[in-house]
């Protein structure tokens, strides 16, 4: 994913301008937002294009080799288009590789080194000083549309999955204070966010490092003690109110199925939490999970999925899986396919195993040949698409709440279409609901009831219900 900052007008005519190219996952996007918010507080303006920028920041992703290539290409493009480039983010940990490919970069800083990246901008494009500097605080910068926002609750990870180098790049789990998380969520909702996407490396582990420290929330006479814990956080987020006095949609991403996850399911049934869980299972075969060294790798997941569905029948489960992990046998792979048939997940993302430089999985014996990875990937996609089609087909005839992402222009008959998402669809990674013939007054961020008329393998189609 690549996101460029939108224009944020400044009242400082001669303010220095910063361009931003943000690559990688939603966590990196949140880092980009924080860096830009800091820079704006220091008097910088944002440039929507390369040409107008005094300096360009490239926030890189260094997780997979393919992401590193994309990062190096983005740095190269920024150098040829602008020439004054500062690199930050996960790939910043590999400053030598970046400098070898692009010796012209002005500075390289790593992930979460907000201070260093801001300092580098000050050094290479010193902020304008003058009597017209605008000291009125402005809202935080967001790189997502106004109606949904990522809420990052912690950084780093205490696990050591053998294919992953995130704990080396980002360190051990460091949870934010619960009152700080809730205050940020409250501000986002007050500014128009209708959907909060809770992210971290391991959302179920939130607060483990701070021993689930208690804080007073909210300020004032209604203050109560709230724990830094996924369940308490979810309950509090569900009690926020949008400008139209509704609960925001709250989605939990990167949830590992620890036993306490069972306690958030009743919150979904109560309407405090969106009935959606993103659980990166990665595999199902015990021997593969063991060599992946996955956390919360326990056998009773299928039973628990069934119980969750009994409590909250509409719960949508999304997951991702890796095929072709070293040592994965045909039997392991068939076990995974059988497990998927039983689990009936709503949304599945699949990846062919790709070695990540520095990961221990690279030293495992029995690598799976590329052609076999491709073949298994195709077989897995066939199964998951069939399941997804049947699940979506079962929604035809129902009326579902849909959040609008985009409203189109009238066609030759004057009809306007719109794209939105049901509660089972997170932005960017899941499917969409396509609406036919919507009123002109419809806007992105509106939540409307939609009669579902059709479905395909990934998306739904319908009209606003009367
Ligand atoms: S849980 Fe595993 S895959 Fe996820 S960040 Fe931690 S080490 Fe990496």
Spatial shape: globular
Overall average pLDDT: 88
Named at the architecture level, the CATH assignment of the largest domain is Alpha-Beta Horseshoe
Low-confidence runs (pLDDT<50, min 5 residues)?
A: 1-12, 130-138
Q: Class by helix and strand content?
A: alpha/beta
Bound molecules: iron/sulfur cluster
Radius of gyration: 23 Å
How many domains would you count in the coordinates? 3
Total helices: the number is 12
Name the helicity range.
Answer: 25-40%
Strand content: 15-25%
**CATH topology title of the largest domain:** pyruvate-formate lyase- activating enzyme
The termini sit apart by 37 Å
CATH superfamily of the largest domain: tm_1862 like domain
Number of strands: 21
- CATH class value of the largest domain: Alpha Beta
Characterize the structure shown.
- There is one protein chain.
- The strands form six sheets. Strands 1, 2, 3, 4, 5 and 6 form a six-stranded mixed beta sheet that branches. Strands 17-18-19-21-20 form a five-stranded mixed beta barrel. Strands 7-10-13 form a three-stranded parallel beta sheet.
- The protein contains twelve helices and 21 strands.
- It has 466 residues and is of the alpha/beta class.
- It folds into three domains: 123 residues, Rossmann fold; 246 residues, tm_1862 like domain (pyruvate-formate lyase- activating enzyme, Alpha-Beta Horseshoe); 66 residues, OB fold (Dihydrolipoamide Acetyltransferase, E2P) (Beta Barrel), CATH 2.40.50.
- It is globular and about 60 Å long.
- The N terminus is likely disordered.
- The site of iron/sulfur cluster has 10 residues, from helix 5.
């Amino acid at each position: 994913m690549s996101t460029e900052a939108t224009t944020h007008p400044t009242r400082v005519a001669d303010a220095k301008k910063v361009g931003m190219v943000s690559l990688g996952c939603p966590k990196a996007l949140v880092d980009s937002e924080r860096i830009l918010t800091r820079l704006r507080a220091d008097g910088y303006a944002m440039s929507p294009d390369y040409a107008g920028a005094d300096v360009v920041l490239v926030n890189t992703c260094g997780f997979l080799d393919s992401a590193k290539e994309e990062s190096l290409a983005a740095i190269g493009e920024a150098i040829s288009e602008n020439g004054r480039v500062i690199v930050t983010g996960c790939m910043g940990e590999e400053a030598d590789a970046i400098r070898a490919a692009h010796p012209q970069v002005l500075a390289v800083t790593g992930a979460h080194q907000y201070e260093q990246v801001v300092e580098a901008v000050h050094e290479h494009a010193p902020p304008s000083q003058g009597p017209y500097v605008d000291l009125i605080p402005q809202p935080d910068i967001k790189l997502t549309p106004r109606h949904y926002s990522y809420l990052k609750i912690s950084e780093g990870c205490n696990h050591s999955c053998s294919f992953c180098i995130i704990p080396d790049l980002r360190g051990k789990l460091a949870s934010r204070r619960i009152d700080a998380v809730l205050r940020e969520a409250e501000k986002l909702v007050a500014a128009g966010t209708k959907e909060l996407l809770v992210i971290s490396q391991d959302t179920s582990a939130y607060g483990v490092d701070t021993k689930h420290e208690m804080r007073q929330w909210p300020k004032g006479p209604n203050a109560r003690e709230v724990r830094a814990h996924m369940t308490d956080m979810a309950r509090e987020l569900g009690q926020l109110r949008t400008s139209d006095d509704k609960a925001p949609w709250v989605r939990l991403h990167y949830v590992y199925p620890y036993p306490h996850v069972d306690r958030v399911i009743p919150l979904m049934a109560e309407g405090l939490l969106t009935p959606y869980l993103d659980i990166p299972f990665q595999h199902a075969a015990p021997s593969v999970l063991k060599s992946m060294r996955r956390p919360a790798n326990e056998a009773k997941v299928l039973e628990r999925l069934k119980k969750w569905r009994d409590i909250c029948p509409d719960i949508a489960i999304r997951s991702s899986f890796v095929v072709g992990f070293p040592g994965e046998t045909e039997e392991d792979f068939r076990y995974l396919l059988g497990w998927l048939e039983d689990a009936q997940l709503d949304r599945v993302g699949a990846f062919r195993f790709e070695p990540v430089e520095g990961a221990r999985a690279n030293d495992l014996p029995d690598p799976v040949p590329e052609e076999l990875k491709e073949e298994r990937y195709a077989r897995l996609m066939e199964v998951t698409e069939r399941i997804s089609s049947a699940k979506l087909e079962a929604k035809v005839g129902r009326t579902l709440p849909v959040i609008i992402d985009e409203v189109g222009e009238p066609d030759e008959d004057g009809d306007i279409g719109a794209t939105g998402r049901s509660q089972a669809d997170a932005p960017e990674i899941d499917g969409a609901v396509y609406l036919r013939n919507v009123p002109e007054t419809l806007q992105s961020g509106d939540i409307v009831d939609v009669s579902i008329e059709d479905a395909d393998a990934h998306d739904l189609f319908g009209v606003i219900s009367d």
